[in-house]
Task: inverse folding
């Protein structure tokens, strides 16, 4: 079905876009962001901030680019004198009541009011000695603070709760310059997706209590990643400061999570900073555990995996495709029972976006694990471990009774992140990186393969688990090819798992791709 | 009728014939006075025929926009299968305007009849009459008249036995000037904040409850039965000046005149006569200084402009202002122009819905600057600032409330500069106390 | 200027909210249901019924209205706070709304307002008089500019109010 394309010229650049496209969207395709506040691609457009007014030839007035659709041959000027003056005046109007809180406001450095004022606002205000309107700070709920004085009434938060979350707990109260965002006293902003209003807020009016005064935006390093909270696979950005994870925010992906992540995923990052890590390979001999070098450790791993007898593999649902796949390859000649640990929780859908929810499977790579053969039931596998010749643990957290169960195993190899004093009996403990400390790939519930990137260095001598398995594979003599990157690992796994054949990181890029085979639906 | 005064010989009573006549409020009384013949006639006509008649009459929206009514009705889709709505805008809140309340208080059946005819013409089976919450008497009277009309078969599932359904519902507003804007009114009716909507979509495509809707002012609808009974040619012939302004209009005159009231005259009537003759002219010893003709949302006219103007849409544009709702605020030489403009700015700041940045912040800022000037603390630069703000508040917003705030400010500074200078220089003592 | 009544000293603490929409008020509301295609459109009429019954609209009443119409309390509050005529705090037995917009100001509205504040004993706008009888608030154009100064006392629209007429008018409201 061909769509009618219309040609529109914006600031001298001509693009052809489908009929019904707004000028603001057409401008993006022309490589131009028209300044705006209330507009957001995932929200209905009210055209209230008036920041996006542009000059359209033959139109008598400036038109709002966020709701005006293109017409054939339309000529638009974003940087004409009239449009620039209008933006300058909107900024001046917004600043008359907006307090000069920048020195104490968390939004500084990533504030759209700062950005546009710096870009095209006035150097000084003419609102000389008049009093600014004052409203008190309000605690909206578990994580959200509303600093009313900073609010520019763009109403993105209200529209998000109304139209996207479909839970109208925020309103605009009062009228005129007395207006503010209101909430009923006994109705908290505790919707499972409410944290998104903090991201949506262009200024520092809605702020996260969790992030309050923790870091300056310009001190943060930002890395593209995938939320490890559940099987939805929302795209995120991990913000770190001096290699400490400080904040998680959504990264736009129109097919998976649009512009949003749930509060569970957003706030569950503290485990990423834990210091109680295994930092060196540990070998147990004659009842004593000794730290050693990787060569020795790999050699021991080859010994343990080369023997005969049934093997049980218990893997974390956070383990990467690369790690899961290469561990399977390492053990391919053995009789393997492989299970993946998948914590469960309540599902929490995001109202109006079909295919987007906090999923009950609270692990990011359950689908990847199942695809790479981790299909046994968890309890069954744990029970078998007691009688297995070898039990391999891949970053799992075990209950006391599960630890007791695997103690009967002939030998236990723990590829571990956290240092667990209960597992000192393990024959070999190998320090591995968490998903924050490595590159890797996850398969979400729709079988979309998505990459995540390393946001901070792994502690001590820890390495990605796939690297450990690959080195052992190579050292075992079965294959002289050694793999030196997650990208190579993924390509290499194409020969073990047909679904991964031909998949490369280059084509996955930053938005991923649904692999051929089942697709459970998408968030479009 | 120069209600509450006796009819002046220069008036042309059409809508105001029965102002003051309590007998006109009942169905029986209205029928006795010739009422409901027009509705019966309309029900025997096709909607298209009615629309053509109204078009030919030249009737234009009396709420302030002056848009040709027949043309507006013709925008409604035909055969689309969706419910159509007629909304009667009785939210009269424009300062200086007080005509619709008289139509509702004295001739409610005339309004009901006009609404019913309009509903038939636009294919609507339901009409909502949105009356501002403060109009307690019109609410009571119109509600009683609607019930009376239902009881007598003029409304309901089978109007006058024709099989046509026309339902009418009185809906009470709750105190918001902006709900007089047609899209804000629709939002308010739907149970929302009275925020104006962006257009497109236009009401005729997607209006009340997202259905095709026409919103008309009380006075516009009240004229319709007269047009149908006496003919479009008659109405179009009532024109003293520009043929594009036809019929009679109720002019609400208030402020510094001896006989404030509503005067019904033919379009094109000289403003000088309206003020100095019909409205009784100035108070003893006073001279005319300024007139805001459109309700307050239009440029202020000085005496020369007012006395030269003809009262129709084009005539007032020719003198630099707009007819609007024809609510004339008359000010004599005792009026403090700066204070009056400040008080109007304060009105707009209070009524701003808060959506658009320029309006929300600009109306309040304008008010503060003027307030400070009245306290004797203004600066010369304030005048340039006021004009610059007014420029940025014009043509930039979803609705024209901020333009309406700007108009008196710009025209006031232009035409009464000396009064502003008097406050700025200290020649005039502060009118407001405080710092 | 105060377009809204201020909280009175007596306050409105934690008395349990007695439902408004039972019996006659409920029937009144339900009679309106067939006249609108959505329940949401009943919001302004429902709020008027609350104010007629209780004199003002409390947060609990807002929640009740929300429940009856399928709207969240926050949504109802957003609508209530938009409109000037809904009182959000207890008010005197008779609420007096006096217009002071330009046309009325030209005709002496400021003096009328002052006379009302003195005559009622309120002294200040938005405050309920000590005897609980009156609250005076200043409002914008009441649409009776030719009959300055108009006031609304409760639902009674009284026109042409001058300072001289004030005490006579107030007497009619015990």
Result:
């Amino acid at each position: 079905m061909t769509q009618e394309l219309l040609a529109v010229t914006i600031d001298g650049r001509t693009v052809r876009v489908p009929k019904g496209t707004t000028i603001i969207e057409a401008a993006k395709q022309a490589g131009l962001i028209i300044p705006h506040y209330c507009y957001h691609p995932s929200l209905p457009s009210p055209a209230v901030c008036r920041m996006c007014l542009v000059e359209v030839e033959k139109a008598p007035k400036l038109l709002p680019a966020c709701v005006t659709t293109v017409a054939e041959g339309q000529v638009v000027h974003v940087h004409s004198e009239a449009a620039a003056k209008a933006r300058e005046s909107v900024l001046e109007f917004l600043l008359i009541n907006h307090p000069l809180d920048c020195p104490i406001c968390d939004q500084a450095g990533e504030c759209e009011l700062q950005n546009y004022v710096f870009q095209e606002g006035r150097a000084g205000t003419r609102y000389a000695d008049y009093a600014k309107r004052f409203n008190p700070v309000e605690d909206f709920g578990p994580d959200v603070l509303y600093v009313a004085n900073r609010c520019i009434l763009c109403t993105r938060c209200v529209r998000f709760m109304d139209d996207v979350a479909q839970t109208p707990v925020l309103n605009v109260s009062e009228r005129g310059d007395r207006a503010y965002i209101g909430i009923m006293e006994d109705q908290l902003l505790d919707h499972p997706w409410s944290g998104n209003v903090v991201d949506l807020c262009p200024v520092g009016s809605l702020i996260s209590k969790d992030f309050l005064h923790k870091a300056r935006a310009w001190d943060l390093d930002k890395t593209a990643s995938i939320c490890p909270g559940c099987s939805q696979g929302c795209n995120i950005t991990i913000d770190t400061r001096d290699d400490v994870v400080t904040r998680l925010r959504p990264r736009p992906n129109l097919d998976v999570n649009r512009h949003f992540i749930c509060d569970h995923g957003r706030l569950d990052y503290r485990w990423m900073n834990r210091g109680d890590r295994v930092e060196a390979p540990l070998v147990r001999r004659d009842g004593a555990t000794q730290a050693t070098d990787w060569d020795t450790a790999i050699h021991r791993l080859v010994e343990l995996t080369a023997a005969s007898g049934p093997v049980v593999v218990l893997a974390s649902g956070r383990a990467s495709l690369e790690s899961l796949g290469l561990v399977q390859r390492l053990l391919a000649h053995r009789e393997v029972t492989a299970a993946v640990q998948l914590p469960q929780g309540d599902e929490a859908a995001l109202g109006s976006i079909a295919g987007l929810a906090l999923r009950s499977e609270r692990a990011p790579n359950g689908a990847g694990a199942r695809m790479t053969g981790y299909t046994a039931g968890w309890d069954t596998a744990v029970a078998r471990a007691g009688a297995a010749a070898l039990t391999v643990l891949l970053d799992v957290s075990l209950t006391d009774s599960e630890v007791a169960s695997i103690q009967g195993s002939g030998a236990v190899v723990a590829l571990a992140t956290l240092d667990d004093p209960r597992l000192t009996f393990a024959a070999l403990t190998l320090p591995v990186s968490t998903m924050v400390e490595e590159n890797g790939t996850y398969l979400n519930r729709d079988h979309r393969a998505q990459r995540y990137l390393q946001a901070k260095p792994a502690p001590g001598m820890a390495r990605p688990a796939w690297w450990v398995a690959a080195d052992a594979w190579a050292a075992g003599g079965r294959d002289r090819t050694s793999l030196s990157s997650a990208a190579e690992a993924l390509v290499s796994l194409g020969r073990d798992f047909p679904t991964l054949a031909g998949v490369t990181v280059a084509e996955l890029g930053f938005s991923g791709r649904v692999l051929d085979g089942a697709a459970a639906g998408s968030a479009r | 009728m120069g209600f509450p005064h006796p009819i002046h010989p220069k008036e042309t009573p059409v809508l105001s014939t029965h102002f003051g006549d309590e007998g006109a409020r009942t169905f029986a009384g209205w029928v006795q006075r010739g009422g409901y013949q027009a509705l019966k006639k309309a029900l025997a006509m096709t909607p298209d025929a009615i629309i053509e008649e109204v078009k030919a009459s030249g009737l234009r929206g009396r709420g302030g926009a002056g848009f040709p009514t027949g043309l507006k009705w013709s925008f409604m889709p035909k055969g689309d299968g969706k419910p159509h709505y007629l909304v009667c805008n009785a939210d009269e809140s424009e300062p200086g305007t007080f005509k619709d309340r008289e139509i509702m208080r004295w001739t409610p059946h005339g309004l009901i009849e006009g609404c019913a005819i309009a509903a038939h013409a636009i294919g609507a089976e339901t009409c909502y009459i949105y009356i501002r919450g403060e109009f307690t008497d019109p609410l009571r009277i119109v509600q009683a008249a609607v019930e009376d009309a239902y009881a007598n078969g003029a409304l309901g599932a089978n109007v006058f036995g024709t099989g046509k359904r026309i339902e009418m519902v009185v809906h009470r507003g709750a105190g918001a000037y902006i709900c007089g804007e047609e899209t804000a009114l629709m939002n308010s009716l739907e149970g929302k904040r009275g925020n104006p909507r962006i257009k497109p979509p236009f009401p005729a495509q997607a209006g009340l409850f997202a259905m095709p809707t026409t919103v008309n002012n009380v006075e516009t609808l009240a004229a319709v039965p007269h047009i149908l009974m006496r003919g479009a040619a008659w109405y179009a012939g009532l024109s003293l000046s520009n043929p594009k302004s036809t019929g009679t209009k109720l002019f609400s005159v208030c402020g510094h005149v001896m006989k404030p009231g509503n005067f019904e005259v033919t379009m094109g009537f000289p403003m000088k006569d309206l003020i100095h003759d019909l409205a009784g002219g100035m108070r003893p010893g006073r001279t005319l200084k300024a007139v805001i003709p459109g309700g307050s949302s239009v440029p202020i006219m000085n005496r020369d402009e007012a006395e030269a103007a003809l009262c129709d849409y084009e005539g007032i544009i020719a003198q630099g202002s707009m007819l609007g709702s024809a609510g004339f605020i008359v000010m004599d030489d005792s009026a403090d122009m700066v204070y009056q403009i400040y008080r109007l700015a304060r009105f707009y700041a209070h009524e701003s819905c808060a959506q658009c940045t320029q309006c929300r912040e600009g109306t309040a800022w304008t008010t503060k600057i003027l307030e400070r000037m009245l306290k004797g603390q203004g600066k010369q630069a304030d005048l340039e600032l006021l004009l610059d703000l007014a420029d940025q508040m014009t043509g930039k917003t979803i609705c024209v409330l901020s333009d309406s705030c700007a108009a008196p400010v710009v025209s006031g500074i232009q035409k009464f500069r000396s009064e502003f200078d008097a406050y700025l220089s200290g020649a005039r003592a502060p009118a407001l106390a405080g710092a | 200027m105060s377009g809204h009544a201020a909280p009175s000293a007596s306050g409105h603490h934690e008395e349990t909210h007695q439902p408004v929409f039972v019996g006659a008020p409920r029937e009144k509301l339900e009679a309106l249901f067939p006249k609108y295609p959505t329940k949401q459109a009943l919001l302004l009429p429902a709020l008027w019924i609350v104010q007629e019954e209780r004199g003002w609209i409390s947060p609990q009443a807002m929640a009740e209205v929300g429940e009856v119409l399928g709207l969240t309390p926050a949504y109802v509050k957003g609508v209530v706070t938009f409109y000037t005529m809904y009182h959000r705090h207890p008010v005197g037995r008779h609420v007096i709304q006096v217009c002071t917009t330009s046309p009325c100001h030209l005709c002496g509205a400021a003096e009328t307002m002052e006379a009302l504040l003195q005559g009622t004993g309120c002294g200040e706008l938005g405050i309920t008089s000590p005897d609980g009888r009156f609250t005076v608030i200043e409002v914008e154009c009441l649409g009776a500019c030719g009959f300055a100064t108009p006031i609304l006392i409760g639902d009674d629209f009284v026109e042409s109010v001058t300072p001289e007429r004030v005490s006579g008018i107030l007497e009619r409201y015990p």
Remarks:
- Residues 248-327 of chain B form a domain with the Ubiquitin-like (UB roll) fold (CATH 3.10.20.600).
- Chain B touches chain C through 56 residues (CB under 8 Å).
